[in-house]
Amino acid sequence: MALDVPKEDDKVFEVEGVKIILDEEMVEYTPGFIIDYRNTYFGKRFSVESLHGGGGCG
């Protein structure tokens, strides 16, 4: 299993001991993220979802 090492301009977040590496540009243009990490009947589940602000050009 390869581990990614954050680049200088990446943003690193830690949730329950798990480090999440996100690209700086993604973080800058996204209003937020939902990070879900839990044990389930089928094993560990981990997801990072972007919150969308809705709207558009106007």
Overall structural domain count: 1
State mean pLDDT (0 to 100 scale).
Answer: 76
Biggest pleated sheet: 2 strands, antiparallel
Shape: flat
How much beta, percentage-wise? 35-45%
What is the number of helices?
1
Percent of residues in helical segments?
Answer: under 10%
What value does the Rg take, in angstroms?
14 Å
Element layout with pairings:
Blueprint (H helix, E strand, L loop, with lengths): L10 E5 L2 E5 L1 H5 L4 E8 L2 E8 L8
Antiparallel strand pairs: 1-2, 3-4
Report on this structure:
InterPro entries: HesB-like_dom_sf. This protein has 58 residues and is mainly beta. It has one domain (10-50). The chain is built from one helix and four strands. The chain has one helix at residues 24-28; strands spanning 11-15, 18-22, 33-40, 43-50. The strands form two sheets. Strands 1-2 form a two-stranded antiparallel sheet. Strand 3 and strand 4 form a beta hairpin. The radius of gyration is 14 Å and the shape is flat. The relative contact order is 0.19.
Write a brief caption for the model.
Helix content is 9%, strand content 45%.
Provide tags for this entry.
mainly beta, two-stranded antiparallel ribbon, 4 strands
